[in-house]
Amino acid sequence: MSELRYDPIKHRWAIIAPERKMRPDELLVPQPEAPPPADADGCPFEYGQEHRTAPEILVIPRAQPAGSGPNWQVRVVPNRFPVLRVEGEVAREGLGFYDRVSGVGAHEVIVESPDHDRDTAALSQDEVVSVLVACRSRLQDLRRDPRLRYTLLFKNRGREAGATYSHPHWQLISTPIIPSVVVQELKVAREHYGRKERCIFCDLIRLELRLGVRVALETDRFIAISPFASAFPFETWILPRTHCHDLAVASDDDLTGLALILGDLLRRLRALLSDPPYNLVLHTAPSPHPRPGQPEYWSTIEHDFHWHLELVPRITRFAGFEWGSGYTINPTPPEEAARFLHDADPEQDAAAG
Amino acid sequence: MSELRYDPIKHRWAIIAPERKMRPDELLVPQPEAPPPADADGCPFEYGQEHRTAPEILVIPRAQPAGSGPNWQVRVVPNRFPVLRVEGEVAREGLGFYDRVSGVGAHEVIVESPDHDRDTAALSQDEVVSVLVACRSRLQDLRRDPRLRYTLLFKNRGREAGATYSHPHWQLISTPIIPSVVVQELKVAREHYGRKERCIFCDLIRLELRLGVRVALETDRFIAISPFASAFPFETWILPRTHCHDLAVASDDDLTGLALILGDLLRRLRALLSDPPYNLVLHTAPSPHPRPGQPEYWSTIEHDFHWHLELVPRITRFAGFEWGSGYTINPTPPEEAARFLHDADPEQDAAAG
Questions:
Q1: CB-based contact (8 Å) between A28 and chain B?
Q2: Is A175 within 8 Å of chain B by CB?
Q3: CATH code of the domain containing B62
Q4: By residue range, what is the domain housing residue B184?
Q5: Which of A148, A213, A302, B24 is the 20 to 30 A CA-CA neighbour of A9?
Q6: Tell me: the pLDDT tens digits for B58-104?
Q7: Nearest Cβ partner of B188 from A9, A29, A162?
C-alpha cells in the first residue's frame, strides 16, 4: 500500500506509491522516446472501449445521442494504477525522526469526451461545460468523506507535461492532508483577510484590471492574467471576477462562463505555441473537515479564499537549478505573454498556421 | 536585463530572463524532439572548439598533457545566455503589491573534460577530482562578491533533465537572494542546533547507519543514502561523514573521497537504469554576507549546516499534481532503491548490459 512520507529536513511530503510500478523492468529501463505502454493495446478511454475501465463513478450523457454513436459525453472512472486507495483508515504515525500517513485517498480519471483526438481546445463550449459539471460533481461528492482533506483536480496534456494517455482527460487525487502549495495559499489569503477584510485575489484582479498590461483575456464573468512572477512562459491564471471561494458551489452560469474563457485561452495557446504540452490545476477550498485543533482554515474561508484555474504550458524544463533553488527561470516576461495571448487569433489552427 | 520577481500569493521567486530567448520563434514553436539548436554547429565545449566560448574564468590543466592533445582538463566559462549578469548594482524595489530585484549574479559553465562522450560515470577518479577542485575554487572566488548571497552548483544530464548541451558539464548560478529551498534547509538546521546543539544532518547519518536499510553506499569518508521521503525513484544524497558546513572549505582529501563515491554511484545508476537523465545539486553554506538585520543565518552555521550533494534521476515526470500540490509521487520505495544500488555491479556498462 502507498504511504505519504514527510522529510524532516526539507519539510516536504512524498507519496511513495509502489503499486504504480507495473513491472520493475519498466522502471529500470525507461525509454522516454517510446510510446507509453499504457497505450500499447489502443486507448481504453475511447468510444467502444468502455469495458476496459473499471465501472464508472459518474457519467454525463450526451445531450442528443446519435443513433449508433456514443451515448455518453463524459465518463469518470477510477485510475487503473491509483496513487492512493479509497479503502482503509487514515493512520498517522511517527517513526522517531520521520513521519508517515497511510495512503488513503481517491484517484480518478475524468474522460473529457468519447473522441480520442479532440483536446479541450477543439471541444464545443457545451462539451467543456459537461467536463466542468463532472468536476464539480466529483468535488461535491468527495467532500462528504471525512478522511479526505483536499481534492486536487488537474490535467496533464502531452508527454512533456506528464500525460500517460493522449486521450483528453482530467484527473483528481484526494489526499488525507492538505497539499503544501495549497496550505501556503490558504495561509496567505487568511492573513490578508485578517488584516484588511479583503480577499487577496479580489485585490489582485482589481490591480491587474487597472494596470491592464498582464490581462490576457476578459469576459463578463472571468479574467485571464499572466501573473507578475510567472514561473513558466505563458503561465495563465483564470479567476472568476465575482468573489467565490469554491468551485463546488459555483453556479451553472459560472461553469458556462469558465468553459468559454478556457476554450478561448486554449485555442489561442494552440495557435501561438503549436499545440503545446500543458498542465492545468484547479485551486479551490479544502474539504470542510477541519483538522482537530486547527479550525482557523475554515473560519473565514468563504470570505478569504477565491477559487481559480492555473495553466502552465510546459515549454521550459524543470531542471537542477529549479529543483535545488525553488526558483523557476522564465524567458518570457508576463507582459509580453499577455499581449501575445490578447492579440492571437483563436481560430487559427496550429496545424494550418 | 533579467529580474527576480516575487509572487505575493505563492511566496515564490521567478527569474524573468528575456535574454535567454534567442529568437521569439524559437520559443513560440518548440520542437521538443529536435536536437537543441545550441548543438547545431557542433559542440562548443569540445577540444578544438575553445575559441567558440568566451574567455575562460578558470582552467585546470592536464596532469600530463599529450603531445598534440588537449592541454586542459577542466574549463570554466561564462554561460553564453546568462540567466543573471555580473554587471551592475543590486536594486531591490517594491511595486505596491509586488517586489522585484535586479538580475545581478553569475552564470558559469564548468566543462568536465575535453571529451564530448564521456559523462562523469566514465571519468577516472582523478578527472572527477579536477572537476570538484574547479567547483570549490569558483565557490571560494564568488564568495568575495558582497552582492551575491548564494552560489548554486548543479548539473543537468540528458534532455529529460534539462540539459541543452550533451557535453558533460556542471553549471553555477549565483543569486542576490538565498534560494527558498536553501533558506528552508538553513532554518531547519539552525532550529535543530538551537534546541539540541547537534547538526541535524549528523543525526540523520547516525540514524541511517544504525538502521542500514536506506544506506546505498558507504566509504570511510562519505555515505550515500536513499532518503526516507525520496521525491524521485533512486534519489540519493551523498554526505561527508565528518561534519563540515561548506564545500568551499573541504580538503583535497575530501574531494578525492567525494570523487570516489560519486563515480561509483553514477556507474551503478548507469548499470541499473540504462544511463538515466539526472540532476545533481550541491547544498552548501551561503556566502558570508549576512542580510542586514538577519545575522542569525551565520551565527552558528559552521556547527548547524552540513554540505551534501543531492542526485535525482529524472525517470518520473513533474506534472500537474506535483506542481499544484508540492508533493511528488515516487513509485520506488527508498529501501528498495538502496538495496538495488548496493547490489549493483558498477562495472556493468549499460550499453553492454
A1: yes
A2: yes
A3: 3.30.428.10
A4: 3-343
A5: A148
A6: 999 998 766 778 899 999 999 988 999 999 999 999 988 899 999 99
A7: A9
